[in-house]
Amino acid sequence: MGSEDFHSFAEQTKRSAEQYTKARELIPGGVTANIKYMEPHPIIMRRAEGSKLYDIDHNEYMDYLLSYGALIHGHGHPEVYEAVMKQMKSSGTTIFGTPHELEMVMAEKLISLYPGIEMVRYTNSGLEATLLALRTARAYTGKPKIAKFEGHYHGGYDQVLLSVNPEHEKSGDAAQPNSVPESHGLPEYYQKNTIMLPFNDFPSTEKILRTCKEDISAIIMEPVQGGFIPAEKEFIKQLRTLTEELGIVLILDEVKTGFRLSLGGAQEVYGIEPDITALGKVLGGGFPIGAIGGKKEIMNLLSPHGGRDIMTVGEEDSQKREAVFHSGTYNGHPTVLAAGLSTIELLERDGVIGELFSKTHALRDRLEELYGQYGIPMQTIGKGSIFNIILSKASIKNYRDMEQADLGLRKAIDYELLKNGVYTKPLNRYSLSTAHTEEDISRTIRAHEQAIKTVLKQR
């Protein structure tokens, strides 16, 4: 994106630029999460409705970021709102700080939908869910190390903030990737105890796992890397068989894919049962939530029955076992569960999820046709209601294949799209919602055509 393009973008979002300058004096980097930053400044939103966002400069956008996929029914769905208000009014509080009925209602729902879930524990984010899943797996197997796939993201904590998007000169051999830190402040311990695997390369993955099987407690993976590069079906089935043979816990991080590939997530689509599933995003209906679910023999390690209470001073009993500790005041928050249950109930209605997938595929088909008309090598990659635009015709099976895509052209088009009223963070994936209409899709195609024309003319 050239300086003229930045100037044009900044002029259209002048008040955002002014507010961002102020924010930088109050908040590190001016943003509350690093992923919210983009050059030359983030767009500061004022309100939202359905499939639309409105910024403080009064620009309207069709929203394809949807809080990184969390809002599967768009912004402010009236039935989700109603469920939230009903819960607060009928309960007389936003939170009990004790067990309550909705915890069991949601647990029963998730157990009925997800093949690999027999019991459930709630957290407050997808990050917390993956962290708890790994702790539980280590307790179950007694082995110290974990394995993850290069290019996969499981949250911003020390053990997994490795080789998410590593520099190629540091990443090592494709068949045996290095563990590359993605942040300052990560202890070397985690590099040594997190084994990196090559995604969609079963022979190389098998070799590493067989070599390290005595040390690896669990493999954690996104069944669809980054929400858009799917695991090959044979790869994920072979991995499931191998982990069972080697006594390694298989954790599916379905934070991005939960409810977006099917009501039963990616595991239903692929026909596998992981040992532990991590959920988040869509599950909260726009509120912060996470959950893990899995086999009873693993999940029961979290039970406090017969375990030592570390929060009670003087509680000592050598006869009591060490439970896997997990706590959080807001776990299973009733308002959040009410929103999540309403979200799922809407998806369960006849034809709703099928129509969402149909709209997504219609948009993908029309985009591919449009880019083809302008001679731009392009493909859309994804599953269900999420996908990404890849400016390359080469086969994309993992993180390293993405270097074949024309990211510079994609970024330039994305900034033009922002000026034309289509919002997703540049280079990010697209998520659709049930609120997106046929007119939204047609407007999106027109915006892409205008963006392509502008960028090609500039070049």
UniProtKB/TrEMBL annotation:
It comes from Halobacillus karajensis. Pfam families: Aminotran_3. The keyword Isomerase applies. CDD domains: OAT_like. Pathway: Porphyrin-containing compound metabolism; protoporphyrin-IX biosynthesis; 5-aminolevulinate from L-glutamyl-tRNA(Glu): step 2/2. Residues 1-21 are annotated as: Disordered. Keywords: Cytoplasm, Isomerase, Porphyrin biosynthesis, Pyridoxal phosphate. It is an enzyme of class 5 (isomerase). Its cofactor is pyridoxal 5'-phosphate. It catalyses: (S)-4-amino-5-oxopentanoate = 5-aminolevulinate. This is glutamate-1-semialdehyde 2,1-aminomutase. Its EC number is 5.4.3.8. The keyword Transmembrane helix does not apply. One of its GO terms (biological process) is porphyrin-containing compound biosynthetic process. Gene3D superfamilies: Aspartate Aminotransferase, domain 1 (3.90.1150.10), Type I PLP-dependent aspartate aminotransferase-like (Major domain) (3.40.640.10). Belongs to the class-III pyridoxal-phosphate-dependent aminotransferase family. HemL subfamily. GO terms for molecular function: glutamate-1-semialdehyde 2,1-aminomutase activity; pyridoxal phosphate binding; transaminase activity.
